[in-house]
Amino acid sequence: MKQIVFQILAIFLLFVTPGCKPDSNTPSPTPDPDELIARIIHLPNSTTGRPADTSAITYNSDSSIQQVTNAISSNSVTVFYYSTSLIKAISSTGSAVVRVDSIVLNQKGERIAAYILHPGGAQYDFTQYFTYNASGEVIKQINWYPNMPGSIPDTVSFVWQNGDLFSQTSTTNTQVLTYSFDLARPCRTGDILFVNYQMSIGLKRKPNAHLCTGTNHPVNGTTTINYSSDSKGRITGYTILQGQNVVEAGTYDYVP
Description:
This protein is mainly beta.
């Protein structure tokens, strides 16, 4: 899925953003209350050609994201608006609105649909629908470009283990993508999947129980994620490797 502000994990997420366990009768664990990322510094990568960038994040009083500003490569601003059943994220470059995300929630707070529009017409619009199991884990996601000629819906199926996203397949990519986790380390705010989810929906919720450490795909190969931490145990940076090649890296600054 094309992320609202920046594409983290694009190398292996296959445009899919898994849903998290929503607020329900069995709420998911939340990160420590002081773990709010104020800035993400995206390091340049000569292998992929990705430039350096900085994403500055501000929050509402309930720890939901208020605004994200990308200062260098895209010079874009995304502002989040919230209501009981709808989250809207409006992305602008200068005075031009370039993307509008409308995220529909059900009574449990689960994201059941997402509609992504590009007012300028530079990219095709995108629609998603989500189905959950009784534990609040997303088990099916339907992706569709409704105004792309010849486009047909793509259904992605998910398998969960130990509260973590174990694997996924889709109707257009039948190869199984599997995820690896460190079962000795709980998920924290700087976890790659956590950041990816929060930046797309604005809400501070854990998408997995344990720290994501990589993926494996028969075609794309194995991806390894390494993290650095401070004396409080907060994740201060990450490096994503494919083989010996660094394909993504960055550091985090936290709200004091």
